[in-house]
Specification:
With about 500 residues, this protein is mainly α. The chain has helices at about 1-10, 15-35, 35-75, 90-105, 105-120, 135-145, 150-170, 180-185, 190-225, 230-250, 255-280, 285-305, 315-340, 350-380, 380-390, 395-405, 410-440, 450-470, 475-480, 485-505. The longest helix is centred in the first third of the chain and has 39 residues, at about 35-75. It is a multi-pass membrane protein.
Amino acid sequence: MKKLTTFLQPPIRKNVFWPPFLLILAAVGTSLINADFFESSMEGINNFILDHFSLLFSYSSFAMVITCALVGFSPLGKVRIGGKTAKPKFNRISWFSIVLCTTVAVGILFWGSAEPLFHYLYPPSFTSNPSGSEAAAQFSMGAIFLHWGLTPYAIYAIPSLGIALAIYNTKLTFSLSSPLAPLIGKKHRPVLAALIDMICLFALVAGMSASLGAGILSISGGLSDQWPHLNRTFLLPVVTLVIICTFILSAASGIERGIKNLSQLNFFFFVLFSIFILCIGPTSAMVDAAYWGIKSYLKEVLPLSLQWGDVRNSDWSQSWSVFNWANWMAWAPITALFLGKIAYGRTVREFLLFNWLLPAAFCLCWMSIFGGSTLHYAAQDTTLFKNLLETIGPESIIYQVFGEIGFTNLLRPAFVTAMFISYVTAADSSTEAMASLSMKKFSLERFDSDTNLKVIWGTLVGLLAWIMITFTGIDGIKMLSNLGGLPALLLLSGITISLNFLMWNPTKYLHR
């Protein structure tokens, strides 16, 4: 009780901590009272945003890709984050492991198989590709390369780099508004700081809760498939409790111990798992998928990114590309706080290599392996895969692929383990960032944020996730988190412009 009483006093930023905390509780309360109304309201607002701001989402995302490339070749690329004498806190393997596992979470585990199948079975009308055709398969790989490659990692890299330079080189406060200093100046920034931090914190808490809920259902489903005698009513709270305790303990143990070690374990698990599938699965189909994916990506990147011709306002573009950009952007600001914080001691070019190019390359390899396998088996029995997608859902596809490959009793438990580690790794870094943002006087020298805040945010996220999967469903709160995509779009656009300001004259704004 004494620790809780101490926590409730400063140094928390009350205007950043309490509004999202209370708004999330209000949203869950509304969802409990009338889940259908809540979900339909969130869906309506989401559709309005996607309908009216789709071009802005698309153009801004593409501008971030171009900015990343320009920064790498500009004088800013030589600048060392933290100054000329700054020394990195992590070796390159540890750093890359943390970056990758913080950003991919459980997304690539499911969408690596499910997304290309969607595009294969339901190709967009503007392509004129027949469902289940070879042309549809080639387009599907290009589309997934777009949605999981350079563009989403540019959405993460731009704010992360802006924050790293602002807090370490310009010596500004640890806030999401700090990278905007070249654009709006230092005098006006405090007015926006609390509002920006509060909105982004709200979006991440909602997003983490929905993501954890989906993760709990997926892990529980995998365990139930492997051991059918397990009681689902008992299984859900147990899985929830284990995940919450694990990521809170990892986050509380600090970045240099818990998060680093768990990320390295997760990364090596990803590598071993993908190599194993590559060796025992349809290897030639995976290689073909990579080839056609690159070829299709190069052909389609401009039309799909900039919504040229019939792509503009198409249902496919709204449902996939624009929705993905909004979702990535909603998560990007808080994630960027963490990625920017751990970039100390690296040059800007190193930062772009490890936060933009290498993670994108890893995801494309992963998508080639799992997407190629899925399309190979779907071509042999299209009806089976279509029925699975429509009757059970996208989470069933990867398990069917395992059944086709063989070694099901080995692959399913390994996949469930990968899901567990992946979510915990992403959640503890997000919890660290949320706690850092909530602190009134966060010290970069101390590096780790307040443990009490990590426990409170982690417990809240876990409790909300359990309530949703038990009583209301996760769709409404997931769409609520996506609402953060619109303010995040404005924030990220501002940071992109700021980076373009200082790109060619870094000494004007930064202490090198």
